[in-house]
Design brief:
Number of domains: 1
Distance between the termini: 13 Å
Radius of gyration: 16 Å
Strand order of the largest sheet: 2-5-1-6
Shape: flat
Structural class: alpha+beta
Largest sheet: 4 strands, antiparallel
């Protein structure tokens, strides 16, 4: 088994405009994803808006430059994540394919293996 990080991207503007019914359906789909992952779902969370982010950037000297907002201006924002344990990348991708953000025109999912230094 290997650990994978599943990153959920989309448009915050689109997410903010969703109806109560759409949000309830999305929550139900995330519950179904978690059930399908079973004990392989190690953790996960929805993130606050990028407007609440604080970014530290390297600078000369020992003190980083601290700014409000994300590192890059993009149309897609990181909205949440899961860490899962899966037999291989194919299994991780198949599980990620259950996420409801893939049914939204602005949605994208990134699956990345986590380096095991153990």
């Amino acid at each position: 088994m290997a650990k994978y990080l599943i990153l959920i991207y989309g448009s915050e503007q689109e997410w903010d405009g969703q109806t109560t019914e759409e949000l309830e359906a999305k929550e139900a789909a995330h519950v179904a994803f978690s059930a399908a992952a079973g004990p392989g779902r190690l953790t996960g969370a929805e993130l606050e808006s990028v407007r609440t982010a604080t970014t530290l950037r390297a600078s000369e000297g020992d003190t980083p430059t601290i700014t409000d907002g994300p590192f890059l201006e993009t149309k897609e924002a990181l909205g949440g994540f899961y860490v899962i344990d899966a037999p291989d990348l194919d299994a991780a991708v198949a599980l990620a394919g259950l996420l409801p953000e893939l049914r939204e025109q602005h949605g994208a999912i990134e699956v990345r293996p986590i380096v095991d230094h153990g």
